[in-house]
From TrEMBL:
Species this chain originates from: Flavilitoribacter nigricans (strain ATCC 23147 / DSM 23189 / NBRC 102662 / NCIMB 1420 / SS-2)
Superkingdom of the source species: Bacteria
Classification lineage: Bacteria, Pseudomonadati, Bacteroidota, Saprospiria, Saprospirales
Name of the molecule in the record: GMP synthase [glutamine-hydrolyzing]
GO cellular component, one term: cytosol
Segment of the intact protein contained: 198 to 514 of 514
Residues given in the record as ATP binding sites: S29, G30, G31, V32, D33, S34, T35
Designated gene of the protein: guaA
Residue ranges of domain GMPS ATP-PPase in the record: 2-192
Enzyme Commission number(s) of this protein: 6.3.5.2
Keyword Transcription among record annotations: no
Record note on quaternary structure: Homodimer.
Amino acid sequence: SWTPASFVEEKVEELSQLVGDDHVLMALSGGVDSTVAATLLHKAIGNRLHCFFVDNGLLRKNEFQEVLDSYKGMGLNIEGVDARQRFWDALAGESSPETKRKIIGRLFIEIFEEESEAHPEVSWLGQGTIYPDVIESVSVHGPSVTIKSHHNVGGLPEKLKLKIVEPLRMLFKDEVRRVGKEMGVPNHILSRHPFPGPGLGIRILGSITPEKVAMLQEADAIYINNLRKFGLYDEVWQAGTILLPVQSVGVMGDERTYEQTVALRAVNSLDGMTAEWSQLPYDFLATVSSEIINNVKGINRVVYDISTKPPATIEWE
Ligand code: XMP
């Protein structure tokens, strides 16, 4: 019968046979799938697995350093690529959701190409594809946009003449988590909420600036930390904050303010295809709201999104 231990043993053997003395390049996201796939490959071929993790300037507060540290702690051969300014420059002034996604995807591919040029010894591309990705042939975002970050390298393997290795192709998410646990992947990675490849770029409605990113990072950190503090993090499937491009009037002391709004989103779901808004306790919402308004400069209003999917999507863009 299937056990995580037997899967790891057989897969590692199979991967070392398949890859032989070759080198593999892999982009990691800090998420469950790419991390577990990389851990299996690392067990099979050691430092001939070359990983990189990109800071696209759209990650959450401290995420780049924390994820990089976790990977180093796990012994992975990982390089951090600080591309924040490149992404911000490329996105400057752009407010269409589709165009923003395309810009982010294109820059990611550019960086991937640069990484592969920097590693001419590489002949394989590692990917964290899992079984539901294999069977999910139609994107929920329509034909021009892919929904999973590993699909964001579409077209790359042919162009770079890389063979593809996907150690998790036959596994469901819960099996991926069990395999990760078996290999000692830290729990904070295995239990992480899904986070979209374009990151905060699709949670800042309208055009993106480094100032807006910093503002949303603060609000998001308050929200997520309180979810953990209240024991609610594992009760919801995904949660995040959205920065709305509207200003509204508020009052502080005897002054009127005219500042921005943050929306809180939390959903319960099985696979992200349908979702219900989470019925979070009022005392939790009250705490988050006052902490955000008192601590994040430029925000004077917090609202809670009570929309189900469909018709509302989980992300706002
Ligand atoms: P929606 O917003 O379509 O999202 O209800 C469903 C799930 O997919 C994630 N998502 C994305 N993931 N690139 C990604 O890697 C994207 O462009 C993207 N758009 C949405 C979303 O966070 C949710 O988990």
